[in-house]
Amino acid sequence: MPTARALRSALVLCSLTAVLAAAPATAHAQIPVLCNENALVAAVNAANAAGGDTLALAPFCTYTLTSAHGSASDGPVGLPPITTPITMAGLGTTITRAASAPPFRVLEVQGDANVPGTNGQLSLAAITVRGGNAPAPDPGGGISNRGGAVTLVSSSVTGNSAVAGGGIYVDNGTVSLTASGVTGNSATTAGGGIYRNSGVVSLLVSNVSGNTPDNCAPAGSVPGCTG
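Predicted structure:
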């Protein structure tokens, strides 16, 4: 019989394939992104302008954001806000805010429910989002999903902080995690890992743990998330 590890590996492989298969129809090929901050910012801007695209991030690269390159009604964002369907595929790849940088969240996804005229859909495969720090009173230190869709496969959100939703904040949107982790994040009020203001969060073979003061908030708002 297949072992549990083999089954998990097969699930991750199938999920990664599904993420890449769901890349925007406008994309003809993955766009390679050199391992530096400016290249990633330019690639996101170009993908938004093109109506969506698939970005192949450099394997084992750490993209260190030294300043905010976007802004929103709920504060500064490290990368330009995602307003179209964008897939970022990596391999041991990290997107992080520099420790010496001013406070800002790492990623924001904007959908029409919150930001009229946008269609933000972000898929992350084998990528870590780290070090985001949304300044008070703004929520969502790692990823803020404002009416869009976020899919994480074999990815992690760790070491981020905010007033609420230290790791992930969702309002009027959807968040789906497969074989992924939300760990070691913090909030000053609630939802150290995930804060669901509204919308839907689903967890499949994923780990939300070790966040403070709690893993998910409000209590019971994220099926399968405890503590």
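Summary: The mean pLDDT is 91.
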